[in-house]
Design goal:
This protein is α+β, with helices and mostly antiparallel strands. The strands form three sheets. A five-stranded mixed β-sheet has the order 1-2-4-3-5. A four-stranded antiparallel β-sheet has the order 6-11-7-8, covered by helices on one side. Strand 3 and strand 4 form a beta hairpin. Helix 1 packs antiparallel against helix 2, helix 1 packs across helix 4 and helix 6 packs across helix 9. The protein is elongated and about 85 Å long.
Length: 419
């Protein structure tokens, strides 16, 4: 199960990768829409989930020769009496709780908007044609709901629009349904909850939904829609009184002037469609690969395992502690000295290893809960010599995680220390 620290790291990594993808799309969408059409700009947003998912894939690995310890055990003979130590402040848990409060608050805010819009529709009535009719007019027609989505029409649908306009309005909503835009908007709402701390997310969500509407308008015109009648239908539709996070209102918070201006643009041809698909696929795969490759290189983790009464490290590649020290790829690791407190626990160290195999920086990645154990493990690790990581046949700097477990024998009282 993912710990709060691991969750915070995943959120931070995906937030950084997603922000980079959003910034690229926001910079390109205007130019792409002018040259290739609104649908091309909408397809660009696939780069954002591609970057988010790429970061969650396993990081690229660096080949490292096996590491083991010379002198794998240090006997301890001492009583089990231990003095109390102050626990390490759980910063990761506090960060996790803060994120959870923000995510729940954002979810409550979005649900309130959804409920407010649905309540403003009044009672819905199912029509003979399978559509739904509300008692209100503001913000309608619209698609609401997720399972299943429903096209909801205003109470004066037949009176407000001409037959041609009604056909175009329904065609617009059915394009949304056919493409699954309601699911896209639900995912955008979920992203707002997960990344409520990212100031770029609200702007990206707003622009993505604008491109969604521009693209839908373009598809209606490409399907034989009359531009003038379609523009008149837009002008006849009232703006929504509140946002609809999971839904597709016909006239939402989208720039009406820009939507009508888009109707004058020519419909993309086959060459433009091919270009937009290639551009979207290339950008999504490129940003996804860049996000994946930008992760810190993952070195094989040295597994900790020590018998009772010892602190020890075991090799990560299956060798036993009794493997001969003359074999290549071994590292000198003097086990930590057991603190007088006789606490037990496991410390996870993060060691930055230089190209010459020396430890340049040692930090505690996960504390044992006892300061003396953490300090003893770090003090020992600073004197370790590692086999460095290799890339293209050359030794390079890297990073390795080393768990160190402190355990005590069940000893009889009165025995002294031994090492």
């Amino acid at each position: 199960m993912m710990t709060s620290l691991e969750l915070m790291r995943a959120l931070l990594a995906t937030a950084l990768a997603g922000s980079a993808a959003m910034a690229v799309v926001l910079a390109l969408r205007g130019m792409v829409r002018r040259r290739l059409g609104a649908s091309a700009a909408y397809l660009l947003w696939l780069a954002v989930p591609a970057a988010l998912l790429a970061v969650l894939l396993p990081a690229p690995h660096m080949a490292v020769p096996p590491m083991t310890a010379i002198g794998t055990a240090m006997s301890s003979a001492a009583t089990r009496t231990a003095t109390g130590m102050s626990p390490v402040l759980p910063w990761s848990a506090l960060l996790g709780a803060t994120w959870l409060v923000g995510a729940l608050a954002t979810a409550a805010w979005l649900l309130r908007q959804q409920h407010r819009f649905a309540r403003g529709l009044g009672r819905l009535r199912r029509r003979d044609d399978g559509l739904w009719q509300a008692q209100a007019t503001t913000g309608l027609p619209a698609i609401i709901g997720l399972l299943p989505p429903r096209i909801v029409l205003p109470v004066d649908f037949e009176q407000r629009y001409t037959a041609q306009e009604r056909r175009l309005v329904l065609l617009h909503e059915r394009v949304h349904l056919r493409r699954g835009d309601i699911v896209v908007n639900a995912l955008l709402a979920a992203m707002q909850c997960l990344y409520w701390f990212n100031p770029l997310v609200p702007l990206a969500v707003r622009r993505c939904r604008e491109d969604q509407e521009f693209s839908c308008d373009e598809r209606v015109i490409a399907g034989g829609g009359a531009r003038r009648s379609y523009g008149n239908a837009m002008l006849k539709t009232g703006l929504v009184s509140s946002s609809l996070p999971v839904g597709c209102p016909w006239q939402g918070e989208h720039p009406l002037k820009e939507r009508i201006a888009m109707l004058k643009h020519p419909v993309p041809g086959k060459k433009q469609w091919l270009a937009m698909v290639l551009l979207s696929a290339g950008l999504s795969s490129g940003l996804g690969l860049a996000a994946w490759a930008a992760q810190p290189l993952a070195l094989p983790q040295v597994a900790a395992g020590a018998g009772a009464g010892s602190t020890a490290m075991q090799p990560a590649t299956g060798e036993t502690p009794d493997a001969p020290a003359r074999m290549p790829g071994f590292a000198a690791m003097t086990p930590p000295r057991y603190p007088p407190s006789m606490h037990t626990g496991q410390v996870l160290l993060k060691v930055e290893v230089a190209a010459d195999g020396t430890a340049t920086r040692v930090t505690v990645d996960r504390s044992s809960g006892h300061d003396d154990l953490d300090e003893a493990a770090m003090a020992a690790a600073r004197g370790w010599t590692f086999v460095p990581a290799y890339r293209n046949g050359r030794a390079v700097a890297g990073e390795v995680s080393v768990p160190v477990r402190f355990e005590m024998d069940a000893l009889s009282p009165g025995t002294g220390d031994a090492s």
